[in-house]
Amino acid sequence: MRSNAPGAGSRGPGVWRGFRLSAVLALLACCASAEIIDRIAVSVGNSVITTSDVDREIRVTAFQSGAQPDLSPANRRSTAQRMVEQKLIRREMEQSHYPLPASTEADFLIEQLRMSRYSTDAEYQQALAKYSITEQDVRDELLWQLTLLRFIEVRFRPGVRVSDQEIQDYFDKQVKPAASAAHPNQPVSLDDYRNQIENRLAEQQTDKEVDTWLQDAHKRTEIVFHDEAFQ
């Protein structure tokens, strides 16, 4: 005979409601915990940079250079400031409909990195695990670096002009003294260094153009650093 009385083998309405309440509370607890662990580090207009974004950037950068990840508050804030600039540039790319490189272009860069440092794929995978990152994290970073270089060349470099006088001044003040000291009694000709000097000066001017643009972009964007995320 089936009993209608709630017991060890059955769930009454009160037990079921209690079970659902416990599940909801557990879910809320998980969400609250996640919010504390991965909180907003910087608000950049309508987008955000989270603490996990900052930490991942530090780990990937350290992996690329073969250094130990510096997760100190000072470096995390410095990294976040650099990521703000990346956000501003990404927004400019989106607004200008700048064509992004294909994701497959990162394959060659990944392979170069792996072959230059690791004798086997197992060593490479162990290194990724040591830095607590994935190959996709590295791939995304390499693709972004490639995208940024190309964007700067297209967006800022065409407006840069280097005059003959600037080239001559740089040669007289920087190149000629160093070359003469390195190779005494040998003639030093401007023509031998003209292309190198022009490229160097163009790069410097391009960097200034980018810095000026970033300063203006900062002024046009509401940027809020949440100090508690860097403690």
Q: In a nutshell, what does this entry contain?
A:
This protein has 231 residues and is mainly alpha-helical. Helix content is 66%, strand content 5%.
How far the N terminus sits from the C terminus, by CA atoms, comes to 65 Å
Structural class: mainly alpha
Please list the strands of the largest sheet in the order they lie side by side. 2-1-3
The fold-level CATH name of one domain is: Triger factor/SurA peptide-binding fold
Secondary-structure element sequence? HEEHHHHHHHE
Average residue pLDDT? 86
What is the element layout, followed by pairings?
Layout (H helix, E strand, L loop, with lengths): L12 H25 L2 E5 L2 E4 H15 L7 H23 L9 H13 L3 H10 L4 H21 L8 H19 L11 H27 L2 E3 L6
Antiparallel strand pairs: 1-2, 1-3
Helix pairs in contact: 2-3, 4-6, 7-8
